[in-house]
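Model: Ready when you are.
Researcher: Fold this.
Model:
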Amino acid sequence: MLLLAFVLAGRGLGVSGAVAYAVAYAVGMRGAAGDDGGSAAGTGTWLLVEVAGLLVGGALSAAAAGRWRGAVERGAATGARARLLTALGGGVLMGVGARLARGCTSGQALTGGAQLSAGGWTFMLALFAGAYLVAFLGPRRLRRQLA
């Protein structure tokens, strides 16, 4: 998919800028979020098309697999409320981190890594190290605090 994005669109993958672009566009600051002059191939337009494709593709995949239902996926020892709160908190932290790092996980790790960017590879290694650390230290403490 990444190679196809480079070949067809001339850009890699990454979606964190889509929200910034949509907000900037909505308040009349088109050029502030990375749109290159309002062309159909502009960065902001590409991001919005990419995110729309993710949503439509995810919905079609869920429907085709028979998984289109309202449910909270969670472990046996985790309540629905705790699962939703941790998912929301993780999403907010990832969003803030993506804006601070000037790129999301897919933009930094996948696209940056494919371009052999030192920052992309550093991010990928730090991401996995942090995930392993949280997986090792976090679950018991989180369950006690959120239960």
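Researcher: Now this one.
Model:
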Amino acid sequence: MKDYKIIDNFLPKKLFKDIQKHVTYFLPYYYINNVSDINNGKDGYHFNHHFFGNNKIQSQDFNKIIEPILSKIKYFSLIRAKANCYPSTSKIEVHGKHKDFPFPHKGLLFYINTNNGFTILNDGTKIASVENRALFFDTSKEHQSTTCTDKFVRLNININYV
């Protein structure tokens, strides 16, 4: 039995294109010197933009980007919402295994652009990065991200909730 669910064309096309444009060209991203905390910066770097964390909205773009996604799911409480930007590399780099949080919760990874990077779930399943795809899985279980080689960046939105 699969431990995850994929929904392609998650958002209506026009709404998705508006979000994609904003996330790609207008969000400020901040440098993070690691990808998985447990590897102490030995598995690359990335940039992110926090929409929600520490029980509060942290971005003026929350309503424009995150609210439309949240309106499509059932959740009790939001834990975190952020955009991830992984710069292209000359070969696909697989980041270290990590858990988003050490307690039971749900995760939604929403892919902003199609590229040859992927997400690796705890059972080894590789999920391709396809724009407007939503991947639902237990992000309290180990998983991994990668870079891409065929686009300038790999972009996704990570939402953790209960």
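Researcher: Key takeaway?
Model: The helical segments are 13-25, 62-70.
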